[in-house]
Write a structure and sequence with these properties.
single chain; mainly beta; Immunoglobulin-like; four-stranded antiparallel β-sheet; 8 strands; 36% strand; elongated
């Protein structure tokens, strides 16, 4: 129902197989995520620590959910000499392909403590439902005596 795409994932996997590296050549995922189904909705959590909520964009087009976020540098003032800079800066993006069983028109999102949570309801047409069975026998007629 929910598919993700990462154009470099297969390249990373192939590189690991060819060179026998287990993670040393892999590029880090800038926007790690968890996704699961909870009742009648899919929930996706994106880790975006240090990102201003105003710098996050969510777009849906043709069943593709795009999450774009920008981590901007922190203002440090004058006469500051950076010693270590490991936190990635810039624009990060992820795309999720939403299956037809999800209702892309009712997506909701919230951001708290550096985690973007996206809730995607299961479409009504995809929910399980009971179907009445017709026996094909006519109702018995009452005979007045």
């Amino acid at each position: 129902m929910l598919m993700r795409t990462d154009p470099f994932r297969e390249f990373d996997r192939l590189t690991q197989q060819v060179f026998g590296t287990q993670g040393t050549w892999s590029r880090p995922t800038a926007m790690p995520m968890d996704a699961y189904r909870s009742g009648d909705e899919f929930v996706v959590h994106f880790d975006l620590p240090g990102v201003d909520p105003e710098a996050i964009e969510l777009d849906v087009e043709r069943n593709v959910l795009t999450v774009k976020a920008e981590r901007r540098p922190v203002e440090r003032g004058e006469n500051v000499e950076m010693q270590v800079a490991e936190r990635p800066l810039g624009v990060f993006s992820r795309q999720l392909f939403l299956g037809d069983a999800l209702d892309a028109d009712r997506i909701a999102a919230s951001y708290e403590q550096g985690v973007l949570t996206v809730r995607i309801p299961v479409a009504e047409k995809a929910k399980p439902r009971k179907i009445a069975i017709d026996s094909g026998h006519p109702e018995p007629k009452q005979i007045n005596a």
